[in-house]
From TrEMBL, chains A, B:
<dbReference type="InterPro" id="IPR029016">
    <property type="entry name" value="GAF-like_dom_sf"/>
</dbReference>
<keyword id="KW-0805">Transcription regulation</keyword>
<dbReference type="Pfam" id="PF01628">
    <property type="entry name" value="HrcA"/>
</dbReference>
<dbReference type="InterPro" id="IPR036388">
    <property type="entry name" value="WH-like_DNA-bd_sf"/>
</dbReference>
<comment type="function">
    <text>Negative regulator of class I heat shock genes (grpE-dnaK-dnaJ and groELS operons). Prevents heat-shock induction of these operons.</text>
</comment>
<dbReference type="InterPro" id="IPR023120">
    <property type="entry name" value="WHTH_transcript_rep_HrcA_IDD"/>
</dbReference>
<comment type="similarity">
    <text>Belongs to the HrcA family.</text>
</comment>
<keyword id="KW-0346">Stress response</keyword>
<dbReference type="InterPro" id="IPR002571">
    <property type="entry name" value="HrcA"/>
</dbReference>
<feature type="domain" description="Heat-inducible transcription repressor HrcA C-terminal">
    <location>
        <begin position="103"/>
        <end position="321"/>
    </location>
</feature>
<protein>
    <recommendedName>
        <fullName>Heat-inducible transcription repressor HrcA</fullName>
    </recommendedName>
</protein>
<dbReference type="InterPro" id="IPR036390">
    <property type="entry name" value="WH_DNA-bd_sf"/>
</dbReference>
<keyword id="KW-0804">Transcription</keyword>
<dbReference type="GO" id="GO:0045892">
    <property type="term" value="P:negative regulation of DNA-templated transcription"/>
</dbReference>
<dbReference type="GO" id="GO:0003677">
    <property type="term" value="F:DNA binding"/>
</dbReference>
<dbReference type="InterPro" id="IPR021153">
    <property type="entry name" value="HrcA_C"/>
</dbReference>
<keyword id="KW-0678">Repressor</keyword>
Amino acid sequence: MLSERRLKVLRAIVQDYVGTEEPVGSKALTERHNLGVSPATVRNDMAALEDEGFIAQPHTSAGRIPTDKGYRLFVDKLAGVKPMTAPERRAIQNFLEGAVDLDDVVARTVRLLAQLTRQVAVVQYPSLTRSTVRHVELLSLAPARLMLVLITDTGRVEQRMVDCPAPFGEASLADLRARLNSRVAGRRFADVPGLVEDLPEAFEAEDRGTVSTVLSTLLETLVEENEERLMIGGTANLTRFGHDFPLTIRPVLEALEEQVVLLKLLGEAKDPGVTVRIGHENAHEGLNSTSVVSVGYGSGGEAVAKLGVVGPTRMDYPGTMGAVRAVARYVGQILAES
Amino acid sequence: MLSERRLKVLRAIVQDYVGTEEPVGSKALTERHNLGVSPATVRNDMAALEDEGFIAQPHTSAGRIPTDKGYRLFVDKLAGVKPMTAPERRAIQNFLEGAVDLDDVVARTVRLLAQLTRQVAVVQYPSLTRSTVRHVELLSLAPARLMLVLITDTGRVEQRMVDCPAPFGEASLADLRARLNSRVAGRRFADVPGLVEDLPEAFEAEDRGTVSTVLSTLLETLVEENEERLMIGGTANLTRFGHDFPLTIRPVLEALEEQVVLLKLLGEAKDPGVTVRIGHENAHEGLNSTSVVSVGYGSGGEAVAKLGVVGPTRMDYPGTMGAVRAVARYVGQILAES
DNA sequence: TCTGGCACTCGCGCGCCGTGAGTGCCAGGA
DNA sequence: TCCTGGCACTCACGGCGCGCGAGTGCCAGA
């Protein structure tokens, strides 16, 4: 186990390195933090920390930089979450309250997160799976063609075309619409399949084919939407990454374009609070030199989607975690109100 | 006026520079293109071209590179549009045909354009202004709260909440829905205002307030949607920009995040065919070292939105223009079918 | 266990210089 | 008048050598 002082040294190294972006040496450390010991002592501690794999030297006779393992220890044990100041919180709230619809909420959230953290922001659209149905609408476009519109409690709207096996009268349509809504309105998506399976039986034989088609389209929409959408922003912040650019930034941009990758990334974080994945902890190779800070958010008490930021492993973890947590909280509020 | 040969020299310079990314000298030119004259002659021509401002030297005793003006002449007079090959066209068509809904069409188009041109692709969602209304739906969410859903012929769906000044009965709602649709279904957005202005008069005095509110929300939706959405992709291609990275790429990324900027960029191109804006021709400062190749596309014969790519001024104009034009054509077909 | 001292390492920045691609100009020839 | 070959000149680029100094490891003494 590392002594108290060595942990202090590690914390100081992380803080300095995050601030200066340059390897930190023993002398500079003792000058900037009053550790109460001499550089020589710190050197011994650093040697020990290096043996344990928490820090490393880019090359002999240079200062030390934290390793992924070092950041991990820092995040887990040495640093808290830095809360937002009151003015910052007010600014967040004001900015988000101006949103007019769901798209706008997500767009504003992305911008906000990117600005606050000066990193790349990723916001997942509120997921359908845990949402409830607000309304299902059926429109007749042609004798044998319907449009199915699904409206969720988060304000999201999905539409699908339905080609009917047989013409479907207006009366039947109104009937189906009414029955469908009385069964599923206000219910959770997960419960919908069980609630509608016997619905075709209530109709005349000639209409059953169409009813079944409509229902399966509805269920399909619920499932398909698990391939959820997300919005990213603040990619310009990647330019602050480092000096050895092209090599670092390219794989990150590529990863960010793969929505699948990002969704997986966000999905993996199971922690109820803020989750941090550092460097090689990220499965995707292109993100091996980045850290992902994410958290769930939702309209009720329950999380329905995730949001977070992607930045260099050398990032201000306490500040970033604080910003991510605060934004998630306020987005949740906004969603609950609308 | 420039002689025939000098134009040939300019064309050769552009082609070589686009290929090699390095300033091109007189000797290399005569070797790679059989111009039928000696390097010395070419040198004289180059001096003349430089006087006219078509090419420039990065520094004394280096080769020449085209200026924005040089590229402009190249695009206008010296190069055609390189058509896609048959296999390429088939690939485009196949890829786009797999799309399941409007979002998917746009997403696939972006990916496709980015891959074909190896540049940043920008695709505007089909605009509402020139579209027609397919259906307007009204749903009652609470006694004095309605949801307005607008469905367009391009398959786009917009929804808005409406808070009514007074409770609005189901019968009135059905009446309004029917009247509204009979008037506006199939009509162009631009015509809608004139078609509905006298609608409140058909209702009882107590309902008129609500009807007016609904109508103004509808009109607002049509107008507001002029702040159209777009999707971008292929930003990883920016890493191929040049060697002097951060300075070049940063403003571009920033500009790409400003949807307003991009929409203006696309909107400015009035040409019915492919439009090219080179370097400083772009109003936005961050895009001064990029060229934008854009074109309108649409479901009918008429253009309803734009798409294009953003890349370094040093790009393969004929190829890029060909790809952009081809993709626009096929997207139009897909939209017309659905 | 901590400290001051000391010898050692080695990346970085700087200046120097040779190389070679490229240029402008000029005089002679078609 | 236009093209050509020749010639002197320019100057960015890359390699080399070197001194500086931050930083290290180790050791003897408190």
